[in-house]
Design brief:
Layout lengths: L2 H7 L4 E4 L8 H11 L3 E5 L5 H12 L4 E5 L4 H9 L4 E3 L5 H9 L3 E3 L1 E2 L2 H10 L4 E3 L7 H10 L6 E3 L8 H7 L4 E3 L10 H18 L1
Parallel strand pairs: 1-2, 1-9, 2-3, 3-4, 4-5, 6-7, 7-8
Helix pairs in contact: 2-3, 2-9, 4-5, 7-8
Length: 209
């Protein structure tokens, strides 16, 4: 992994996936998560006005957290995200063009992969970490098998259905961190609920690292 990427990820290797977050709630939601201990916030592009939300988060929290986008599908989107201040490109799939575009803009790249062949190809293209997606189909024994053939420095981040109760087995298998979706955030969650869920994930992660 890129040294700067490691600096962001290592202290708290959890990615908050904020699907559905709107610009008007960006500041308050970001504050709750970052105050809880999160250092990486991802706004999927199938959220309402995602570029505006990324811009707000980057301007307000860019010195304290790595802000980026998920569900990135095109190189034009990579450019938009970079212009908005985002620094992390996450996709549900692996596309060499997206990885190359991200790195050309000085951004971090975390493509989604589901097989070792996809994973190695993404790394060869310059990916900084691998999103293991969907984690529901990549069990801890599968992650353990991946880790056996991949350098320990390669970041493996299961995403999909991760809860505090499922993190232990993945961590023991060799996961580097986790992407957290609806178990952490939904657009209709109250701030107090988001904060409580964030605290549970942070507390659990601190027992592992």
């Amino acid at each position: 992994m890129d040294e700067q990427f490691v600096e962001w990820i290592s202290p708290m290797p959890l990615v908050a996936i904020l699907r559905g977050l709107t610009p008007d709630k960006a500041s308050e939601t970001g504050a709750v998560l970052i105050d809880a201990g999160f250092r990486v916030l991802e706004v999927p592009l199938n959220s309402p006005n995602p570029i505006e939300t990324i811009s707000i988060l980057a301007a307000e929290f860019g010195q304290r957290a790595l802000i980026g986008a998920g569900t990135v599908m095109t190189t034009d989107q990579v450019i938009q995200i970079a212009d908005a201040g985002g620094k992390l490109i996450v996709s549900p799939h692996s596309d060499q063009n997206l990885i190359t575009a991200a790195k050309a803009r000085g951004l971090f790249s975390m493509p989604g992969v589901a097989t070792p062949s996809e994973g190695f190809a993404a790394l060869n293209a310059g990916a900084d970490g691998l999103k293991l997606f969907p984690a529901e189909s990549l069990s801890p024994p599968v992650v353990k098998a991946w880790r056996a053939v991949m350098d320990r420095r390669v970041g493996l981040f299961p995403v999909g259905g991760i809860t505090p109760d499922t993190m232990d087995a993945y961590w023991e298998a060799g996961a580097t961190g986790f992407g957290l979706g609806s178990a952490l955030f939904k657009a209709d969650y109250a701030l107090s609920e988001i904060g409580a869920k964030a605290d549970r994930f942070i507390t659990k992660m601190r027992t592992l690292i």
